[in-house]
Design the sequence.
């Protein structure tokens, strides 16, 4: 099967969607499929034609063509997409829908009218007032919509009518890290990972820390990631008098995430926005760490509240603190939840299952053409 | 109800448009909305660029294979009304001459005016990691 993956950014850009897609495409290739990627050039200076682990990459200036707007650039980009489709001859096109570049897919659909699978990996904005929109066209015209959680499926079906017969959940996944989970550390270490933006709610984690420190004098919070809110968070920790116990680890390469989680007692995901899934929660579960999440989007569903972690009300630092204290106070319970998380990661969220479910979907769509 | 003798032209003070390999792409420069049409819709756009009247457009489209006059009239009313509402076109006074840009052996397909109002919202979704350095990612972990 020839699979053309359509994704906003791809290697060497990094993020949950990029890493997961690269792993997935590599696994498809190892199972004998041919795969190629159409993606945006982005801000780095990168070749238009490239490859990564046997995956052909065609980079195009989608976002420049759409944001300027420059119809000359638009026309050139559109023709390049047509050429690439005619050259690669995909059997299926699979879009990770996080940006407006799929406009170019729909405008070139006729040159290779094959099934289009659309994964919705993040919460889409509600449809604008009045008729029309790319989100509505993309979801309305897709052969199949894949949601990465039940919460996401419900939200997407609510946004666009008529998706019931052509949408389903395939839970996100990541390959297991090569290292094994380590025992819990001696001192209490709370970890948050992600882009340092307001939506991730890292400020709520800092607000929760004084209560945790009141109970555990040597407790530390590690913030792994970078972003525009970092200075504000450093100031906040200073103001609260806990700067010495809040460590800003900065950017952490994906290969190092598992090592970092191994140094923690628990992982927090205090997100404000509707996390579609929450890959960090899965990474924590893979490393047998309990997870405390806010009750938004797919997070409570991923951790199975009370089984592998605790879900607390959104934007509620006292509740975050209470959950963290409960787990830190009972290491046996933490270990039990961590092991349950590891087991859930190996079954419900296993990577081979993720790849096979997509293969089955592609086959079904090709057979029903 | 738009009158048959009414002529239209692209509203060039607000939009930029181009026909690319048979697909019409229109951008509203004031609000960032995109529009697209293909097939019969592109014929209509080309005739609007020629400032043809609604009646002339109707006559041309009715000559396409499989076209029914009444249906064509109804579809044109809808399409032109949508374009007027979006300020993509405006009334024109004088006709501009030219050969109707119609391939007479083409089949008639009801024209669809795709409207994309959410391009800016989608451009703002899930911004990539800030502060990317040179190739920060060596390889994904092996399964």
Sequence:
């Amino acid at each position: 099967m020839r699979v053309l993956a359509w994704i906003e950014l791809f290697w060497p850009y990094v993020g949950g969607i990029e890493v997961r897609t690269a792993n997935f495409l590599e696994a498809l290739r190892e199972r004998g499929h041919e795969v190629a990627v159409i993606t945006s050039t982005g801000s780095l200076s990168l070749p238009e034609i490239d490859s990564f682990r046997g995956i052909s990459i065609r980079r195009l200036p989608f976002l420049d063509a759409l944001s300027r707007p420059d119809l000359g650039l638009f026309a050139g980009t559109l023709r390049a997409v047509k050429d690439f489709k005619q050259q690669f001859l995909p059997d299926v096109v699979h879009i990770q829908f996080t940006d407006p570049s799929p406009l170019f897919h729909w405008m070139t659909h006729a040159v290779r009218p094959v099934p289009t699978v659309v994964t919705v990996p993040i919460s889409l904005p509600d449809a604008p007032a009045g008729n029309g929109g790319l989100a509505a066209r993309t979801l309305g015209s897709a052969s199949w919509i894949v949601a990465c959680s039940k919460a996401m499926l419900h939200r997407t079906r609510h946004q666009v009518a008529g998706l019931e017969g052509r949408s389903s959940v395939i839970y996100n996944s990541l390959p297991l890290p090569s290292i094994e989970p380590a025992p819990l550390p001696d001192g209490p270490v709370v970890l948050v990972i992600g882009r340092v933006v307001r939506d991730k709610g890292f400020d709520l984690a800092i607000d929760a820390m004084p209560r945790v420190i009141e109970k555990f004098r040597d407790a530390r919070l590690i913030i792994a990631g970078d972003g525009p809110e970092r200075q504000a968070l450093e100031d906040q920790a200073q103001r609260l008098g806990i700067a010495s116990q809040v460590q800003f680890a900065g950017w952490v390469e994906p290969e190092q995430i598992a090592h970092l989680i191994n140094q923690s007692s628990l992982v927090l995901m205090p997100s404000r926005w509707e996390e579609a899934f929450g890959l960090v929660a899965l990474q924590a579960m893979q490393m047998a760490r309990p997870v405390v999440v806010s009750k938004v989007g797919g997070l409570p569903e991923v951790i199975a509240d009370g089984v592998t972690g605790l879900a607390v009300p959104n934007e509620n630092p006292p509740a975050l603190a209470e959950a963290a204290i409960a787990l830190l106070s009972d290491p046996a319970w933490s270990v039990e939840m961590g092991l349950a998380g590891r087991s859930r990661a190996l079954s419900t969220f296993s990577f081979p299952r993720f790849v096979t479910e997509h293969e089955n979907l592609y086959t079904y769509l090709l057979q029903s053409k | 109800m738009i009158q048959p003798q009414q002529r239209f032209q692209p509203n060039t003070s607000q939009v930029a448009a181009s026909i690319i390999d048979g697909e019409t792409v229109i951008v509203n420069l004031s609000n960032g909305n995109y529009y697209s049409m293909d097939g019969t819709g592109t014929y209509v756009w080309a005739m609007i660029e020629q400032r043809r009247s609604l009646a002339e457009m109707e006559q041309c489209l009715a000559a396409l294979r499989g076209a029914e006059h009444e249906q064509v009239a109804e579809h044109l009313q809808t399409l032109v009304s949508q374009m007027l509402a979006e300020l993509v076109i405006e009334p024109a006074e004088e006709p501009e001459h030219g050969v109707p840009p119609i391939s007479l052996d083409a089949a008639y397909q009801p024209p669809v005016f795709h409207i994309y109002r959410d391009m800016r919202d989608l451009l703002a979704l899930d911004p990539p990691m800030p502060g990317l350095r040179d190739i920060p990612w060596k390889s994904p972990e092996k399964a």
